[in-house]
Amino acid sequence: MKSKEKKILGILGNPLKQSMSPVLHNYWIKRNELDSYYSKFELEKLNNISVAIRTLNIKGLNVTIPYKKKIIKYLDKLDKTAAVLQSVNTIHNKKGKLEGYNTDVQGFLFGLRKIRQLNKKKPTIVLGAGGAAESVVYSLRLIGMREIYIMNRTKNRAKKIAKKYRGVEAKNWIDYNLINKAGLIVNTTSLGMIGYPSLPVSLENTTKNTKVYDIVYNPIETALIKEAKQKKLEYVTGLEMFLGQAQESFNIWFNIKPKVSSYLISKIKENIKTL
Q1: Under CATH, which number does the domain 117-233 receive?
Q2: Which end of the chain has the lower number of beta carbons within 10 A, N or C?
Q3: Catalytic-residue membership of 68
Q4: Are 129 and 186 in contact (CB under 8 A)?
C-alpha cells in the first residue's frame, strides 16, 4: 500500500558530484514501485542535522566522506558493526529514532564472494589506513583471514587499526617482500580514482594465484585492475562493493533485498563514464 507522503531518502556528504547512489537507489525505488525519492544532501556542516532529518521526515540516508564518524553523536543508536568501527554509512529514521549502521562490511564481502578460491593461509595486503581500510580488515577477520598486513604511507595510522585486531600487523608502505607472496591484495586508498595519482604498486612479481580487489569504482578499471587483467589474475572492482553496501542499505530502509541485474550494472557504468 502506497503512502500519501513521498518518503525522502538521500546521501549526506561533501563533495557529492561523483556519487552514483541516486542513480542506483532511484532505479530500485522505481523497480519496486515505492513512493519514495533519493536525493543528494551536500552539506558544509552537520549542525542540527538530527532535527532536520526528523522535521523533514527523511526515512533514510547514506553517509559518505567526510561525515561517517562525525554523524555518530547525532544518532540515537548504532548497530554492532558501526559501534566497533565507529563509522556509519547508513541512517534509518525509525519513527523519529535515528539508527546508524555500517553496510561497508557487507558490501566488501559481497565483492569478495565473487572470488572463486581464496587461500586463507596466504598473507593479505590492505593498502591504506582510512575508514574504508578498517571496514576491510574487520571483514577479513570475520571470514577467518589469519595473516593481514596494513601498508600505509603514515605507518602510525596503520598501527592504530592493527592493534585492535588479532593477526593484523602494520608494515611499511609498498613492501614487495610481502606483496609478491600475497594471496589477496586490497586497495582501500583513493589512489587510482579519477582526479588522484595512480597507486604506485606493481603486480609484476606476484604469484599467478594472487587475487586483487580495488574498492575504487570510478574508474571501474583502475591501473591496478588493468594490470591484474593483463596478468590474468582474478580480480574484483569497487563496483561490487558499491552495489553490495547499497543493497544492504536499501534492505534496512524497506525490508526489500533489491536485485543487481546486468541492466543496472550497465546503467551505472554508463553514468560513471559521463562524470
Answers
A1: 3.40.50.720
A2: N
A3: yes
A4: no
